[in-house]
Amino acid sequence: MRMIVPRKSLLILFFLFPFFFVAQKNISKLLDSLVLSKSKQQTVDLSLKIASKIKFEDVEQMNYYIKEISILSLTG
Q1: Where are the domains of the chain?
Q2: Which terminus of the chain is less hemmed in, N or C, by CB atoms within 10 Å?
Q3: Secondary structure of the chain in the HEC alphabet?
Q4: 75, 76, 33: which is closest to 53 by C-alpha?
Q5: Distance CA 20, CA 57 (A)
Q6: pTM of the predicted structure, to 2 decimals
């Protein structure tokens, strides 16, 4: 039995699939920068960028970065 996939679905997958990997790559770069950050302000800025990029993908992780921002803001 042969499975028929509509062309529209294939086109959507073809165009959206690369964007998923680009988004993950950008977050990885931000995480690397976060590890190497020297100042509290830089850490807060990077945490905010990461939280905004993952807000629709991983709410738990987003909340973690928001808490880190709050803690750093209160201590410094």
Answers
A1: 38-76
A2: N
A3: CCCCCCHHHHHHHHHHHHHHHHHHHHHHHHHHHHHHCCCHHHHHHHHHHHHHHHCCCCHHHHHHHHHHHHHHHHHC
A4: 33
A5: 11
A6: 0.56
